[in-house]
Specification:
By secondary structure, the chain is mainly α. Helices cover 58% and strands 0% of the residues.
Length: 170
Amino acid sequence: MNSSTAGAGGVAGATGSSGAAENVRLDFGKSAPKVFRALIGFDAAAREGLDPALVELIQIRASHLNHCAYCLHMHTNDARKAGESEDRLHMVAVWREAPHFFSARERAALALTEAVTLVATGGVPDDVYAEAAAHFDDRELAQVLALIFAINTWNRVALSTAKRAGTDQR
């Protein structure tokens, strides 16, 4: 969510500074439980066999690009709990300028994450795909792609329903 879509308190749909109640959006999980469960299953299947640190880096980078504060807060916290360093977390947004913080495999996954997340602006360039394919076997590459698809979907759910950062109740 960016500042142009946020009202009072940083919540999309808020009524402004008049003190009136915020405009509450639907709870997607309660309103579409079968779809929500399917997304949870897709997400779980996508991460199977992938290094948990890589999973979080991909989710953090996509959430940066999509301006999803809710998911960014959730995944940076998950990464910290899994032992990720503050230095690396701070460098994810500028990974190209700080390549020494990330392995070649992680950089390939981050580049692919950017290309897939921003697919409408230029597709997935052959060189980005080839670099990822050089670091992941076919099964792993499919898992990485599925994870990128999943986090982009979760970002859109959170943004569309105005989920507030810091309110994750998993």
